[in-house]
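Question (not urgent): is this output format expected?
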Amino acid sequence: MTNRFDETRQLERIEKLDQGPVPVVLDANWVNALGIMRGLGQLGLKSVGINDTPDGVALYSRHVIGLVGPNPRRDPQGLIDLLVRVGKRLKTKGVLFLTDDNYLKALSQHKAALEPYYHFTFPDYDVLERLMDKRRQYKLADDLGIATPRSMQVEKAEDIAQWPQDAYPVLVKGVSGKDFYHHYHSQVLVFQAKTELEKMLAEKPAIPVLLQELIPGGEENLYTAGIYMNEAGEAKAVFTGRKLRQYPRNFGTCTVGESLPCADIVQPSIDLLRKLEFYGISQVEYKFDARDGRYKLIEVNGRFWKWHSLATDSGVNLAAAAYCDILGLPMPRVTPQRYGLKWLELPDDFRGVLKDIQAGGFRLGRWLRTVAPPFVFSVFAWDDPRPWWKMVWKSLTKMG
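Got this back:
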């Protein structure tokens, strides 16, 4: 049986590409990578996609030549070596696009080895390290007058005595990077009482965590500014939208998103990115707090986020803007953002619906309103159907 992603054969295909500088997308696992590839496909470009397993949905797009490579956490040097082999086959320097913090860390630490072969859509490691530190994000936000949730770092159970008793329930999240997720297998934990939190910190090996107040309101209060910022600190493309639903509920990833205007978060986001000395693609997320009518900073992600393809479908092609700006090409035609368009990731949304039904919290009318047209799908596209079939096959395999 032919190996679809045989490196020798795929490198030969890459060498034969007859186009401008080749985009290289990592990781090519899910919809965020697929959105980059399709966005760049609007420029007539085929991308190289690299994933650490052969079942990445984005590897099956018509816009990609796929490769399977080392995992950036387990073998970063092996991944860099693969990128160098790819780079040597390119006619001109490629352009790197990243969708995951682990890849950001690995590649930003090895820029010197990659620089002869690639242009970068992300800054140096020291900038990313500062950006990934939520304490620094909140400190700089406070300096700029951007509202933030009440937060406090703790490293051991004894530290939580300083957290006010009236501030429960409380969120617990990582201070920086993916360490918290790899440690606790969740992006965020919620504790209703001090005793629960003390028990968790006492039982688990100590890593720094951040306690944060739980802002009232549902996921529809989570707003995003998606921005491409160049090295000169100019915001060349800006998108605004919000989540309507996510899975798992309250603290999961987006399953229904909406394009809408939110001018109140645009300039503060640009100011914060400049203060962080960041350039590239970012998502700056806020939660609207009805108690005081302010948008409060949740986090800054220095990469493409899961549902960024809604920006492209709404007329703000962030990947194309970054590609053209970095290469000094004419920027894509700027059109007003299309508001009201929704982005649907139905498999996980249906899982959330089933959970809501089991918990007795499902409201059919509300759900129908959130999925009412106009909308686009996260994976399915008539002109690029294979990723959808791959997603279906993966789902059926898991069920079996």
